[in-house]
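Collaboration report, partner site 2.

Our partner group contributed sequences for two proteins of shared interest, and the home lab folded both. The records are reproduced in the order in which they were received, starting with the first partner submission.
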Amino acid sequence: MGVPTDTRTHMPFDYDLPLYRPPGERDNLIIQATLGCSYNQCSFCAMYRDKRYSARPLEAVYADIDAAARDWPDARRVFLADGDALALPTPHLLALLHRLAAAFPRLARVSCYATPANIRRKTAAELAQLRAHRLSLLYVGIESGAPLILKKITKGATTHGIAEALHRAADAGMKVSATVILGLGGKDCWQEHIDGTVALLNRAPVTQLSTLQLYLDAGIRDEFGRKFGTPFVMPDDFALLGEQQRLIEGLEPPRPLLFRSNHASNALALEGTLPKDRARLLASVAQALAGRLDLRPPHLRGL
């Protein structure tokens, strides 16, 4: 999940709002290649419920790129919004990447959100070609590695499909920043949620892993509960810290990964490299569980 962007007030074009971006793209140029999300059925996510998915015409995107280049010619990193630019046909994406490279001489990286399904729809050759043209970072919402939880949240992905997508991206030389949502299993299924997630991440490579705490927009709470299928009880902060603890304890990733819980939804901000910093991260969680480390107040949290 992302955070609403404040956008750059000096951009010489208008964004189609709402506009979301990952926290790490805060200072980078955002170009809307698509509107909305190509799937848009995850029961926990309200980000694009008021938008119908569409690919923006190339000429309209070109106009935004050219206008942004006049305003910010030294931009080095570009995020392609909205929810899943990788859903675009490969020739369409390559045309955008060519235009970006021509417009920004210092361009070093292009990134976008990507669903596991749309990664898998690209051939290995297509992914490698996109990587060669600087699309080098994909933000992938794993959410959970437990088959039961993926079904309950109508994620539209299986554990096998997510693992395959992560391997395909890594094989193409792309970095993957993945997210997991603490609390998705509620009070009754939290162990299955965390253990399934650990099992997935221990066999599929990601570059960075971020945890978020579950937040349900008022407009989708009933839908989430209905699709979950069994009574859902939201865990409290200490239960979520227990999930975080179990996750960190169990992770033995195939390659070192940067671990973060600094998204605004989290009660406790953590950052380190796993497995190297496991002991330090667990010590921080233990301090928080013992009440010796302050948690972020609820009124300061958000998407």
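Second partner submission, folded after the first:
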Amino acid sequence: MHEGHRSRMRAKLEEGAMLYDHEILEILLYNACPRVNTNPLAHALLDRFCSISEILKADVNELISVDGVGKNIAEYLRTVGLCAEQAGNVEGAAVLKTFGDCKHFVSLRLRGKTEEHLELYFMEKSGKVKRIYSYTSSDRNMAEARAEEIIRNISLAKPDGILAAHNHLNGSAQPSANDETFTSQFQLICNMNGVTLYDHIIYADDNYYSFGECGALEKIRAKLSLKNVFKWISNSD
């Protein structure tokens, strides 16, 4: 019976349905109580602490004072609370507001790599990096990223914009024809998903090439704007 109920609750969570506080807490407790009905425990905790926020702030000894809460559950809830507190601490997050910030971050990420890596930094409007996706391939001189995977990640993370970066192993940061093709294709993906491509930076032995800084990205944007793309499609008929 519990498994059927848990399956229904998990389905609500996955579908993004509205969940009451006791339902959220009940699902959270599944991890600490794999074979117990957590609904009564969720209600008992809310009756004592009044809100999920206060439950996650409570110390272990106070949590244990609630009937049904053992040490393992109390430690689990306190750990979740600490994670939530750290999640609100932006000091550890990278915030890229200037080209200098971007160069420094890219160098930290790509310096010393012995394989070519493509990295996509999903960013909030504030410049905070919220997700990093890194791609390589079986060929150390080439990185591969599947368009459908990028589009799926954009749909899930919903960034304001993306900074792309990759490294060259030959010591030259100058873009190849493949780099220019990728930038154009990636700009089109960003256009179609309502995301801004902030820049594409190539890194090689502390040398940098920026499609944005040199004006190449602006030319690509103008050429591949949705208006121009649809005009080109129309003219091709």
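Feedback sent to the partner group on the second submission included the following. The CA atoms of residues 32 and 73 lie 6 Å apart. Residues 92-236 form a domain with the Cytidine Deaminase; domain 2 fold (CATH 3.40.140.10).
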